[in-house]
């Protein structure tokens, strides 16, 4: 007997379990097929402490104070540029609250990235959330009125809703209700291109739906119910849960198969050791633009959030002629759903395995410091700690000239100001990467080898800087400076071991 399973919901726009069933019957649902859906945004500010945003201009002024000795750099830029990066830490949540206005602007951009058109935005301030509907009764009536006057297709909440809040709101509003996690899941679904990415999004969506099935029995039954699918004595809710759990198990099996292939590919790649350098950062910080500027790889660049979802790898040659693999990864965001962090752990393995992290920060953002804390929090969840980090202050072309000049005064081995778009500061960044790869230091070695070893000479010339070369009879004498891993591979041809630098031996 074939058991009908819940259909994958990946790649559906702004869809929960009930909407998926409706969409199967009505093609007009999907905004990509027709006009964008009209959305009413609702944000609630719970009164309490608020963190004042740190603008790039403020950051530059603080940096200027550092140069005069008026303040300690560690207080404001977190790290002395001339010292090694300290181990990353996961900040306390209270210290990472984004400013409410900036948070609201970010949520509006999320809605647009999902294909919605913002018809109206409503804000409420309250001491604590209403356990039944998040917002108060008066605000709920206002939402009902705005939905009616704008003919909105959905209401988006910039908060996670409990299953009971979601059900109550759906019962009182004449349109679909989407919370923050569901919206982010939808954007991920839109941008997943690889099989692994699609499976990871579907898994996160299913795990999100599971505790929210109550009251949706009819919709879920349309997704695969029928004769032979219900166990003895099961209620509709129990049947729906069983079907989703079956689908979750199936997706996990498929994911494991895909990951086995990924592991095999990585093992083949690691047979020829090449350091991995991973770009990390807040969404829309310009990672893909910087990736393209460094590698000319042609990765999609977009101002939309989460435009890069599937990891990208490209080889990059440094000034020392050392070759590294540069990895572009998904951007992080405040309150990134835990299900996504878990589901995308395999995709983020390149970050875990990287010898060096480039933390790309939007220097023009008024929330540059808060965004940094959010990124560090996710890295803490991934248990990626203790790795060397270079802070890459991107988008400096958007700063005023005096701000750029002051910011430049704070640069050092662990902090570089660049513009991926204008290709400013890239050589300084490449030099910083070269210097930071302490696991594979640059060394100098003298070689004496037969001229018949043309492949060895070619490898040295391709991967190192040949500072001298001469021929005597059938022998070639070379002095090369390059990565220890490369030069030590051919150490059997060393002319004199004492001529090699001590470091790395």
From TrEMBL:
Residue ranges constituting the Hflx-type G domain according to the UniProt record: 275-441
Keyword Kinase included in the entry's annotation: no
Keyword Ubl conjugation included in the entry's annotation: no
PROSITE patterns for the chain: G_HFLX (PS51705)
Pfam (any one): MMR_HSR1
SUPFAM superfamilies per record: P-loop containing nucleoside triphosphate hydrolases
UniProt-annotated stretches for the region Disordered: 75-95
A GO cellular component annotation in the UniProt record: cytoplasm
GO molecular function, one term: GTP binding
Keywords, in A-Z order: Cytoplasm, GTP-binding, Magnesium, Metal-binding, Nucleotide-binding
Function: GTPase that associates with the 50S ribosomal subunit and may have a role during protein synthesis or ribosome biogenesis.
Family per similarity comment: Belongs to the TRAFAC class OBG-HflX-like GTPase superfamily. HflX GTPase family.
Designated name of the protein: GTPase HflX
Source organism of this protein record: Edaphobacter aggregans
Taxonomic placement: Bacteria, Pseudomonadati, Acidobacteriota, Terriglobia, Terriglobales
